[in-house]
Amino acid sequence: MPLALLALAIGALGIGTTEFVIMGVLPQVAGEYGVSIPTAGWLVSGYALGVLIGAPILTVLGTKVSRKKMLLFLMGVFIAGNALSAAAPTFSIMLIGRIITSFAHGAFFGIGSVVAASLVTPEKKASAISLMFMGLTVANIIGVPGGTYIGQAFGWRVTFTIVALLGVIGFLGVAMLVPEQGRPEAARIRTEFTAFRNVQVWLAMAMTVLGYGGVFAAITYIAPMMTDVAGFPESGVTWLLVLFGIGMFLGNLLGGKYADKALMPMLFTTLAALAAVLLLFTVTAHSQVLSAITLTAIGALGFATVPPLQKWILDQASAAPTLASAANIGAFNLGNALAAWLGGVVIDAGFGYTSPNWVGAILAGTALLLSFLAAYLDRRSRATATGAAPRHAEPEPAR
């Protein structure tokens, strides 16, 4: 695989760390600012909504420059947002810092997915995308647990300072390894919006919102769930996040591999299993051993959906992939925001820290139903196209 994929993975490592590390230090942040855990959860929801809004805006603006220059600009935004988060004197400013950081997220992965796919042959596109997203999964094995440990030992502000430094490394990696691909065509902006005329693009984004949202319903409140319900010490959250990250890493590899061979069957399997495991987590969260195993499975199943969903978007919007790809990254984070909010609602309603798990199961199950609809529409579309071809090719009868 090209070295440019390594550069994209380095950027993804930094972005993945800042996205997920907040869950590990959420109690510390809430305690310092004097807010409740559900209120602190807005640092997750706000970040996710920032990705949703920032992804299409920055991607459209990015059509004015080369993709490499845009990736460098996005890493600069990422560094600035994390630096503000680290120094924030109030919860509101901390939230603003998170939103600034989030603006880089969606456009980076959206543009990065197009760049990654363009570097390899068509039959390896999903694998290339999964290699870029590998940085996100490595973040959950090393960056997030490490950041959680540092936050608990030395303060969460130190964590976000280190994350900003990761952004500097990501910036240098993109600068040195990603090739220039030229400036996009002048008519690119109008062309990019045509992708949204395809109902399959909207279905894919809906599957993304609900499917990956199911994961975030559980993982957003993992620290209080594991300490208050499973009985882990606060330091145990670090190692639980390592297990979640290992699951993500393995799921990402499998998702990329099998999406190149059987995309829809891969989605059917992972979404069905994800819904079942999330529902099971409501019970297994009361056992330390079983909760650790379940958390690993959630990471694997949740992230196994990422390469196939991102490739499905690129396939359905092949004539104008950049904005659709970025919008789908926004959809991942809309799911994150929706799930984090719903998780906070059921906790505030008095259903306990395990209640977000069954919320996640409902979201993932709904995504499964949408995947059946998308497959049906795709088969019908192909059958219609195949049936139309012979009729158009038939000669007119003799007169």
Automatic annotation (TrEMBL):
It comes from Saccharopolyspora thermophila. It is a multi-pass membrane protein. One of its GO terms (cellular component) is plasma membrane. Residues 4-382 form the Major facilitator superfamily (MFS) profile domain. This is MFS transporter. The chain crosses the membrane at residues 42-63, 70-96, 102-121, 128-150, 156-178, 199-224, 236-255, 262-283, 289-309, 330-352, 358-377. It is found in: Cell membrane. InterPro entries: MFS (IPR011701), MFS_dom (IPR020846), MFS_Efflux_Transporters (IPR050189), MFS_trans_sf (IPR036259).
